[in-house]
Design goal:
The protein is an all-alpha fold. It is built from 17 helices and no strands. The chain has three domains: about 110 residues, Cytochrome Bc1 Complex, Chain D, domain 2; about 60 residues, Orthogonal Bundle (Cytochrome Bc1 Complex, Chain D, domain 2), CATH 1.10.760.10; about 80 residues, Cytochrome Bc1 Complex, Chain D, domain 2 (Orthogonal Bundle).
Length: about 325
């Protein structure tokens, strides 16, 4: 009984002390004095163990040596990450170095982490630091682009990243005219469609951490002009692409009473509804169809219904069909 009373008294004193620290501001939160002895070690050890526990399995890591994926990650890093971690080989600003904890230079930050751990950190961020989570939820697929760039830094093969002070048009060009793969071609899309997508990215109706960051570099009032610049020409577009006969043809023509066929909305160079798909990048089409199928993209109920039951093999078949039929 005496032991229980003693423990209760100690617990009460501890709670009273904690309440006093909080209530009277006894703890100095100044970044100049840093943490108390042992606190930094405890936080860092907890952080490393927490990341290791929750990181994706190694078999979930995609191919990270794809130049297009690396370039896409470099473009996002330039405006979303470099302000704290700096560019490879460049010194951080004095302001950043005065943070507690100070964000490590990027080469140091990635040196002791594997790709799965880097993915978890970029996607989730870290409490009690300046490291934010990915701007939108359920877009782990986009995070791999940044991880690919970080892995290239570790290997000493990172490409030069775009200058963060590029204007909106130049920054768009750094991805949409220089990178293939999962980045869509804009020159086959209409200006109205592009403007609507920019607005959807701005409001979050179409979730994308990369594009949510990118549209902040463009004044909202210039969306129309930007869309007009990158869109398909209004005249001289050439003949309508003829759908190729092959495994994807029957699938693209397949529809129901409630869900029209792919070609009903996306056929030809000037589709009646939806963006043109003929000639679009295959990897981009596959990634977007997967997002629709998995319920990440929901802003168009018809597309959500059309893709809901697609298998991974059917997504690959359709993506290959539309990409090759338009070229």
């Amino acid at each position: 009984m005496r032991v229980l009373i003693t423990l209760a008294v100690l617990i009460g004193l501890g709670l009273a002390g904690a309440a006093a620290v909080v209530s009277f501001g006894l703890y100095n939160v100044s970044a100049r004095v840093g943490h108390l002895p042992g606190v930094a070690w405890g936080l860092h050890t907890t952080f490393r163990n927490s990341v290791s526990l929750r990181a994706p399995a190694p078999e979930e890591v995609p191919r990270l040596d794809d130049p297009d994926l690396i370039a896409l990650g470099a473009a996002h890093y330039a405006t979303g990450c470099a302000m704290c971690h700096g560019a490879p080989g460049e010194e951080q600003t004095p302001t950043v170095r005065a943070m507690v904890p100070a964000p490590p230079p990027i080469a140091e930050a990635v040196a002791h982490w594997g790709a799965p751990e880097l993915h978890w950190i970029v996607e989730n961020g870290a409490k009690m630091t300046g490291m934010p989570a990915w701007p939108v939820e359920n877009r782990a697929d986009e995070v791999w682009a940044v991880v690919a760039y970080l892995e290239a830094i570790k290997g000493g093969t990172a490409p030069e990243m775009p200058s963060p002070d590029l204007d909106g048009r130049a920054y768009c060009q750094s991805c949409h005219e220089d990178i293939g793969g999962r980045v869509p071609r804009l020159d086959i899309l209409s200006a109205d469609y592009l403007e609507a997508q920019l607005e959807a990215y701005r409001t979050g109706a179409r979730p994308s951490g990369i594009m949510a960051q990118a549209v902040t570099l463009v004044p909202e009032g210039s969306f129309a002009a930007l869309a007009e610049y990158f869109s398909a020409p209004s005249t001289g577009a050439g003949a309508e692409p003829v759908p190729q006969e092959g495994p994807g043809t029957a699938l693209a023509r397949q529809g129901t009473r409630d869900v029209p066929a792919c070609l009903a909305c996306h056929g030809g160079q000037t589709p009646r509804k939806g963006p043109r798909l003929f000639g679009q990048n295959e990897a981009y089409l596959a990634a977007q169809l997967t997002l629709w199928r998995d319920g990440t993209l929901t802003h168009d109920p018809l597309m959500a219904a059309a893709s809901r039951d697609l298998t991974t093999e059917e997504i690959e078949t359709l993506s290959r069909y539309f990409a090759r039929a338009g070229r």
